[in-house]
């Protein structure tokens, strides 16, 4: 098995949770900003100051940009977490080899 030590397995699980959490937090933040923008544009339209806007016209580019931004932010978390797993696994194997 690639990861044999208990600490390395736990670190791998925590790294995966951190990656999912980071991706979701950044994605949700972008979606939240897009929804606020859509609602502001709709309010301007209702007040007579702006043109009608379809939700997909606002949210489609926001969704794509949010997914890209979330991936960009979660990639370093994944790299750092799994590099730590690799290091813990190497350390564990070296300790066993010297016994």
Rounded Rg: 22 Å
The low-confidence runs, each spanning 5 or more residues with pLDDT under 50, are none
- Let me know the average pLDDT: 89
Order of H and E elements:
HH
Strand content: under 5%
Q: Which secondary-structure class do the elements indicate?
A: mainly alpha
Would you mind describing this structure in some detail?
The chain has 99 residues and is mainly alpha-helical. The chain has one domain. 86% of the residues lie in helices and 0% in strands. It has 2 helices and no strands. The two termini are 19 Å apart. The relative contact order is 0.20.
Outline:
With 99 residues, the chain is an all-alpha fold. Helix content is 86%, strand content 0%.
What structural keywords apply?
99 residues, mainly alpha, 86% helix, rod-shaped
List the helices and strands and how they pair.
Elements: H1 6-46, H2 55-98
Helix pairs in contact: 1-2
